[in-house]
């Protein structure tokens, strides 16, 4: 691990990752053993590695898998989540976008001007929050890693998206806004490191890339950041953690938008109808052959 100027055997690498996660949980005061934790699980390396780490650290964590309806890719991903939970006796809640909400991500992308990834991100945020609230979990744990967060920060900075910069933090304390506290304990661990952890721990995960990922701008940013990391080891970590230490206090002062209940589903939203209900309505209009204005 060039950014730590260190090398580990398998056993000590696993210890190192556990310590990195526990340190992140403690430093950001994310949760303790009394909290009721729900982890968003995708069948990929990050969420399954995190589930493994948290369980080993003694936390009781249930998972929730969202089936996105992206053909065999989604079926395979759900299969990896199910097998992981089953083999370890963990509880996995399952939501199927097609069965439970009447649309899939490819249909959502075809029905609106949103990209597949934008419709997907919106759906994940909405459904995972909804499951956490309705099942009584007070903390929603997400498997975003260092690469994910650094790429998001880079995108928010290049677009000077002040609202997003104000909210980019590994702990979103939103219980006063009708949302579960959202936490990201994996942000000190790079993508290659979660992959190595999964291999060492014998975790089977989805290795194929989502067929709808073409054009995903965050993936393109990750490639550029990796090129910079190659010549300047530790650059991604300095970029992200420097922002959290020195940038966050500056942007946190920005006023938060006022939230009201969505007229359709009652979830917190800045408008009359939340973005997810609008997306869902657009897919229904497409299915019934009506035009959509996006
Ligand atoms: Fe969703 Fe895009 Fe990721 Fe596919 S690549 S799972 S569409 S966010
Ligand atoms: Zn709604």
Structural features, described:
With 294 residues, this protein is α/β, with parallel strands linked by helices. It contains twelve helices and eight strands. The chain has helices at residues 10-27, 45-56, 71-88, 97-101, 105-111, 116-134, 146-158, 162-167, 191-200, 217-231, 235-251, 275-287, and strands at residues 37-41, 61-67, 92-96, 139-141, 171-172, 181-183, 260-261, 268-269. The chain has a six-stranded mixed β-sheet, sandwiched between helices. A two-stranded antiparallel sheet has the order 7-8. Helix 2 (45-56) links the parallel strand 1 (37-41) and strand 2. It is globular. The relative contact order is 0.16. The structure holds iron/sulfur cluster and zinc ion.
Bound molecules: iron/sulfur cluster, zinc ion
How many DSSP E strands? 8
User: What order do the helices and strands follow?
Assistant: HEHEHEHHHEHHEEHHHEEH
Distance between the termini: 46 Å
Beta-strand level of the residues, as a percent range?
5-15%
**Basic shape:** globular
User: Helical element count?
Assistant: 12
Helical fraction equals 40-55%
Stretches where pLDDT is under 50 for at least 5 consecutive residues are none
The class by helix and strand makeup works out as alpha/beta
């Amino acid at each position: 691990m060039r950014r730590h100027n260190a090398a580990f055997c398998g056993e000590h690498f696993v210890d190192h990752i556990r310590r990195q996660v526990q340190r992140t949980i403690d430093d950001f005061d994310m949760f303790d053993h009394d909290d009721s934790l729900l982890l968003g699980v995708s069948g990929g390396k990050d969420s399954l590695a995190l589930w493994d780490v948290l369980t080993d650290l003694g936390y009781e964590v249930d998972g929730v898998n969202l089936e996105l309806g992206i053909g065999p890719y989604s079926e395979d991903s759900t299969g990896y989540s199910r097998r992981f939970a089953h083999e370890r006796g963990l509880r996995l809640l399952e939501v199927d976008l097609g069965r439970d909400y009447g649309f899939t991500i490819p249909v959502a992308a075809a029905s609106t001007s949103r990209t597949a990834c934008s419709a997907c991100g919106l759906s994940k945020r909405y459904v995972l929050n909804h499951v956490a609230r309705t099942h009584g979990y007070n903390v929603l744990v997400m498997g975003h890693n260092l690469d994910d967060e650094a790429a998001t920060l880079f995108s928010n900075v290049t677009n000077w998206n002040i609202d997003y910069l104000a909210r980019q933090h590994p702990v979103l304390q939103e219980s006063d806004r009708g949302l579960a506290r959202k936490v990201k304990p994996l942000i000190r661990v790079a993508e290659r490191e979660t992959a190595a952890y999964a291999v060492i721990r014998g975790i089977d995960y989805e290795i194929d890339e989502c067929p709808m990922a073409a054009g995903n701008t965050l993936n393109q940013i990750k490639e550029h950041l990796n090129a910079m990391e190659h010549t300047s080891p530790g650059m991604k970590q300095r970029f992200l953690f420097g922002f959290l230490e020195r940038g966050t206090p500056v942007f946190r002062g920005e006023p938060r938008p006022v939230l009201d209940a969505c007229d359709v589903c009652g979830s917190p939203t800045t408008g009359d109808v939340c973005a997810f209900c609008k997306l869902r309505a657009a897919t229904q209009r497409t299915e019934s052959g009506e035009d959509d204005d996006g």
